Amino acid sequence: MSDQVFYSSRRSPVVSLSACVASSQTLATSAGLDVLKRGGNAADAAVAVAAALAVTEPCSTGLGGDAFCLFYNAHTGEIQGLNGSGRAAEAQSLDFMEGRGFSAEAPPPVFDALNVTVPGAPACWCDTLQMFGSRKLPLQDVLRGAVELADGGFPVAELTAHHWGRCASELQAAGRALGPDLLVQGRAPKSGQVFRNPALAQTLRELGERGKPAFYQGRVAKAIVDVLRENGGVMTEEDLKKHNSEVVRPVSIEYKGVTLWEPPPNGQGLAALLLLNILDNFPLKAKGHNSADYIHIFTEAVRLTQVDVLRYLGDPGHVTVPVDALLDKSYGRVRARSISTDRATEGVKPGLQTGSDTVYFCVIDSEGNACSFVNSNYLGFGSGLVPKGCGFSLQNRGANFSLIRGHPNVICGGKRPFHTIICALLTDSNTRELLAALGVMGAFMQPQGHVQVLLNMLEFGMNPQQALDAPRVYVHYDQKNGQWTVNLEEGIDQSVAEELRRRGHNVNSPVTGHMRCQFGRGQIITVGNWWDPSVNQTDRPIPRVLWAGSDPRADGCAQGF
Q1: Which of 8, 196, 224, 540 has the highest CB neighbour number within 10 Å of its CB?
Q2: Does the residue 164 lie in any domain?
């Protein structure tokens, strides 16, 4: 495959009447659609997609990672969430880490076994079915598609093959060879090459037959502990056995007649809401899509948002996060007043660096239920450690812990780290009717991506596919040089880049080819075309049509029926 990737084609939004699935792998989308056609609901289909993605895109997601879920119940209008993130081993504390010679200035290498937190995804899958599923299909049936893909093999998609190879090479360069279960004769598979993972198929079968105990106790748990201990980790089988998902109440804000719902801390959904609250104080539509004025204001708002999130966000089971105060509209107005419209603000510094490699997907079923789901290993294959005979790698999410004493996100045994992965739902602020399930994965890009694609629809009238296709902005802080960079994707005019530089921004433009992965990969399904300014939305009744988009920066698609 060429090192270059071109985005020269176009996609129409996928439209359907009954149900729809959107994900970053076509085979995973098909697995979810199959579950819907067999009588499952949105939650059942989401778990099927999650498992299929664990097979087909292991360089982003898997059983060794974490997951978050939001579910919209069409019968009650209620939105509930699951926090499926894992905790640090009980033996880990700041004193322990300092005793190992680590500090805020010299943390463990990102692939170190001490950065492995308890994998939360398998429990989240089981709990999603238990809480939100149709009860028509057992877990074994929901996972059947993923088992067949792992056992019989599948052709690796083009962009996935590129990132699979890149992530495997990065691990090798850091002295960590990826386990043989995830390689073909010691190498990452090429685009179109058929890849089998019988070890993962067996793990998925056991999960389907026995549920959570199959992962958190017995063979798999022992294999996890063994590989960690061999590499200097301290996780125990008891750490795994006592893991549980947490039912959470999503956080939300209103913006021009719609309500955006996000997972609460320890996830960074708070960042998307803070960002939107600040931007609510500016006439964005009048500024023009991706103009210098628009991107300048967006950039300044992102910087303010990241500072607040990194200052206050941690595991609410260990620290108090002032969510209500941060999301108050008056606070958004105060932050907005600190933005100069013609000059970049100096001295805005966050204190944490994070990575990416995640999958986001969404499902809306024929009853109107919606499941917005995100699953992640963190940095590619995470730690790169593969438990023997299990077929998956272990995440390195603990790299996000702070080693600063007294920090809200300081490492502590049994604590969940600051988490970047988020999923979103959108409802009508007056009726609470579902408007969309949406998300964009990719580290700090996630809240930035959520807001950009939402504004593309709300302010600029783009359909879901256009909203995902449009060139994006990624505002990034590099701890090494203490500098903010505004990354502009190919398609944004170079005169905009020059004007942003004049205002004091460090600009990287244009970002092309495979480097566009930094702008994330999104999926959207909307109920109706509320985003279309030419349509009179008061004309009722109107047919219930689902409109869906899938990000061209990934290998996936949306499908409906």
Answers
A1: 224
A2: yes
DSSP 34-53: HHHHTT--HHHHHHHHHHHH
DSSP, collapsed to helix, strand or coil, labels residue 55 as helix
In contact, 35 and 52? CB cutoff 8 Å: no
* Whole-prediction pTM: 0.95
Identify the DSSP state of 518: G
Using alpha carbons, select from 180, 226, 176, 228 the residue that is nearest to residue 200. 180
Selecting among 56, 358, 420, 427, the annotated active-site residue is 358
| Contact between 422 and 251 (Cβ < 8 Å) | no
Is the pLDDT score of 369 beyond 70? yes
Q: How far apart are CA 178 and CA 188, in angstroms?
A: 9
Q: Do the beta carbons of residue 371 and residue 69 sit within 8 Å? A: yes
Report yes or no on 53 lying in a domain.
yes
β-pairing verdict for 251-255 and 246-248: unpaired
Query: In Å, what is the CA distance from 377 to each residue of 24, 280, 388, 500?
Result: 15, 33, 18, 35
pLDDT, position 319: 87
**Alpha-carbon span 225 to 239, nearest angstrom:** 10
437 domain-assigned: no
Is residue 443 included in any domain, yes or no? no
For tokens 């790299």, what's the residue?
A: 399
> What amino acid is encoded at 547 in this protein?
W
Q: Residue 314 and residue 311: Cα distance in Å, rounded?
A: 9
Structurally, how many domains does the chain consist of?
A: 1
Task: Tell me, rounded to whole angstroms, the distance of Cα 163 from its chain centroid.
Answer: 16
Strand partners, 20: 364, 560
Looking only at the bridges linking them, the beta strands covering 507-511 and 483-489 are: parallel
Please name the residue that has the structure tokens 């004025």: 293
Q: Are 271 and 305 in contact (CB under 8 A)?
A: yes
Expressed as residue numbers, the domain containing 51 is 21-247+358-400
Residue scoring higher pLDDT (325 or 73): 73
pLDDT(160) > 70: yes
Residue 246 to residue 127: CA distance in whole angstroms: 9
Query: What does the pLDDT look like over 372-414, one tens digit per residue?
Result: 999 999 999 999 999 999 999 999 999 999 999 999 999 999 9
What is the rounded CA–CA span in Å between residue 59 and residue 162? 10
Structure-block tokens of residue 214: 């199959």
CB contact burial 352-373 (16+ within 10 A = b; e otherwise): bbbbbbbbbbbbbbbebbbbbb
Closest CA to 483 of 349, 388, 365: 349
Q: Report how far residue 77's alpha carbon sits from residue 368's, in angstroms, rounded to the nearest whole number.
A: 10
Q: What is d(CA 111, CA 168) in angstroms, rounded to the nearest whole number?
A: 12
Tokens 């699951």 identify what position? 82
358 is catalytic: yes
Q: Is 328 left (phi over 0), alpha (psi -120 to 50) or beta?
A: beta
